[in-house]
From TrEMBL:
Residues 1-105, 328-348 are annotated as: Disordered. This is DONS protein. Keywords: Developmental protein, Nucleus. Its main location: nucleus. The gene is Donson.
Amino acid sequence: AASAVPGYSPGFKKPPATLRLKRKRLQRSEPAAAAPLPCGSALRAPSAPARRNPFSSLDNAPRAAGTPQPRQPDRRPPPPASGSPSAAPFWQVGPSPGPAVAEGCSPPDLRLPVAVPEVPSSPRHEFPADWSIKTRLLFMSSQPFTWAEHLKAQEEAQGFAQHCRATETNLPQSIQEPKQSTELRCAFQQSLVYWLHPSLPWLQLFPRIGADRKLAGKASPWSQDEALQQVLMSDWSVSFTSLYNLLRAKLCPYFYVCTYQFTVLFRAAGLAGSDVITAVISPTTRGLREAMRNEGIEFSLPLVEESRTRKQKNSKVNLETEVANSLEVGNSVEDGEEPAPSDDDDESFSWLEEMGVQDKVKKPDAISIKLRKEKHEVQMDHRPESLALVKGTNTFTLLNFLINCKSLVAVAGPQAGLPPTLLSPVAFRGGTMQTLKARSINAKAKVHLAYEDIFSLEIVGPVMPHFLHSLTALLKSAQRGAFSAVLYTHEPTAVFNTHLDSASPALNKETICKDLPMCGLHPKTLDQLSQCPTLGKSSIRFLEMKDYAYTWKS
């Protein structure tokens, strides 16, 4: 049917042939004494059909009248299990089936950004600590967020003063008129403050991993000036050392060092279930780990050790069964396939001596073990499994290593010569006070054939762990114990929720309050951050409160 249309070449194998046919038709249809065309006009027959785009696919070819259109496969997602989109909660209702009507600005995308497990956690009065950095929070509620809009100058100043003085704010369980509550609005401003170094207003300094595209084309006078680079790094070293001293004195609970290749989280003693200072680095490479070993930094790879222990346990059980079966029939395992070499040396086969079969099992040689270890180390580079843990006094050695590490700063590209970003919840030398960006959005979505108001509050910026706890405590009172939140995680930091193998038993609240009296965080926030991480390599993606009880999905 497509071949019946003039000027259409189904195969598009020889375009010049089609053009020659058009020229012949043009010469036959036009009279010889045609009037001259004005200069610049196209030479085209009036009766010739419009030329088809030769780069379109055959499925989009023009068809003659009466030709039935082939049925296309239905690629729409299946309907929800409930049978109707209106049966889903309001936070899952997208702009369709009806157009969203925004008031003042464009409506937010109310659909979940990631695949979320169907089974949430059981309702609890507190959610676990999430040590990952969030780039965006989207709170939604049936109650408006007008109390978070247009803070007065006095309320803003009071919020800054409360942050600098580490003022503890305790709100009632429910606030009847949130917009009229000065205490709530000041506490909201207090909960948005963080400290940053370096401060370059025309550059977005978080996230740093994968930020070359956003930083491309921005002014960077230090990229070609080595003297300026040395000044920036010297100033950065002073700020980094100041933060570590605050951490060691337990006046700073934690801070982040964000480079263009990896992120380091320093935590004070008493947090994450550890009684010593800890530093976790992710992702790492074989070169970085070798450099740390050469500097005498003792570290462990918790996820690798956990996987190794699991594999050794499984292989031990399988080999025990194989040896037992072989001994029963009087055969030796020596002629069979040799066991796969583990990541450890020959000491990992000491358990064979306990069974008395060390001479009957063919063990891999040292070269095979070394090659396997090197291959495994390279394979886990830039992956969450490469998480490195540094504890105690080794964190001070890590501090000096990072200050003197030449690969800490990019030598080419948009981030060339730019020192790493330091993020802290408290003030430090050389740090600049910054605030997260907040805006409230009122939109309407079609639910049950009618429009319902959906109120949302968007928080954008480097959302550190204490922010989430502080903001949810405020929303608990302002939104009367009913709200939900979609959390956007900076993926390289999700692995910071890994449980530390060497973590001490859970420390009681009195010990935490005694050891960290002036770190600037609320006692309830400290109590949450002191617990051992339970989220593993994942992070909280969705958080919901109903009747003052939390449920979450990771």
